[in-house]
Amino acid sequence: MMKNIHEEFKKMSDQEHAIQLQKYFKTGKGEYGEGDQFLGLRVPTVRKIAKKFNTLSIDEAEKFLQSPYHEERLFALFILIDLFKKGNEEDKKKIHELYLKNTKFINNWDLVDVSAGPIIGAYLFTRDRKPIYTLANSENLWERRIAIMATFCFIAQNEFTDTLKIAEMLLTDKEDLIHKAVGWMLREIGKRNLEIEESFLKKYYQNMPRTMLRYAIEKFPEEKRKSYLKK
Question: Can you give 137-191 as a three-state secondary structure string?
């Protein structure tokens, strides 16, 4: 089956689109996605392949997660999310551990954003959440993004404490991709409880990175947005 999947990806590849994706995901020297390789498949196509080959095992999915090709890694994450949802406690634990062991392959914002909540957040929702704090302290950009994006799962259940703690930890982060993710999660809190979001913003808005603030207040009425942007 593994060979069939690789052949499916090869058959659907589009070199012209691959070049566009390499630019979009910043794969040039010194950029955040440096050296990543693309086959040129669109996300809906990758999802279709994942549905077609949804009998893959956890171990087989891990092999695809370690692929040099971005779309095959995305495919692996779709498979793992599905296996996690359907799995028993032992399967969920195995997928959670596999994910943390392979974070170097979950190395762009789309890969993180699609998977951190449904796997890491979902696993830790009823457990000790220490792993996300370890990730938030990581020197690796993607592990820090996994930390904040994992809390999307908690936000969906109206639990905001960990998101706010990690947002506080990441206030001085140097990476724009972290500023965007934190701002986004603060905005998601605001959709459910504006008072809690504004309590956090009033405490930190003057010192938080501009991008983070803009993302956090994106849905505010114009006058309120302007008042926050006046430092």
Answer: CCCCHHHHHHHHHHCHHHHHCCCCHHHHHHHHHCCCCCCHHHHHHHHHHHHHHHH
Report how far residue 189's alpha carbon sits from residue 88's, in angstroms, rounded to the nearest whole number: 30
E strands in 14-78: none
One-letter amino acid at 121 equals G
Q: Which residue has the tokens 């954003």?
A: 113
Instruction: Encode pLDDT of 165-223 as tens digits.
Output: 999 999 999 999 999 999 999 999 999 999 999 999 999 999 999 999 999 999 999 99
Cα angle value 103/106/111 (rounded, 5°):
145
Token pair recorded at residue 92: 């969920």
Q: Which residues contact 90 (CB under 8 A, 6 or more apart)?
A: none
Are the C-beta atoms of residues 185 and 151 closer than 8 Å to each other? yes
* pTM score, whole prediction: 0.96
